[in-house]
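Priority: medium. Attachment 1 of 2:
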């Protein structure tokens, strides 16, 4: 596909050889990060909805 995945904080660059653990850990971390972002988004929206202007 020509897509190169680089995750600086996880020290991952998919251009070179991939290990078995990278193939499992990186997608799992992405799911956890996505869930955390959704949670923060819902809490922020609830906070704005509860404020009186």
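Attachment 2 of 2:
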């Amino acid at each position: 596909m020509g897509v190169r995945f680089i995750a600086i904080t996880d020290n991952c660059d998919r251009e070179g050889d991939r290990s078995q653990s990278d193939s499992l850990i990186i997608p799992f971390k992405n799911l956890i990060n996505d869930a955390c972002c959704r949670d923060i988004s819902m809490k922020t929206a609830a906070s704005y909805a509860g404020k009186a202007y």
